[in-house]
Amino acid sequence: MLKEALPEIKTTLPGPKAAAILERRKEAVPGAIKSVYPCVISRGEGAMIEDVDGNIFMDWVGGVGVLNIGYSHPELVAAVKSQSEKYFHAMMNVVTHEGYIELAEKMNQIVPVKEHKRKTMFANSGAEALENAVKIAKSYTGRPNIIVFSGAFHGRTLLASTMTAKKAYSVGFGPFPDGIYRAEFPNLYRGPEGYSEEDSVRYYIEKLEKVFEEGAPAELVAAIVVEPVQGEGGFIPAPLEWVKAVRKICDEKGILLVADEVQTGFARSGRMFVANYWEEAGCSPDILATAKSIAGGVPLSAITAGVTIMDGVRNGIIGGTFGGNALACASALKVIEIMERENLCGRSLEIAAKCREEFESWKEEFEEVGDVRGIGCMMGIEFVTDKKSKTPNASLVSDIVGYCANNGLIIENAGTYSNVVRFLCPLVVTDNQLDCGLQILKSAIIACR
Question: Is the link from the previous residue into 177 a cis peptide, with omega within 30 of 0?
Answer without folding.
Answer: no
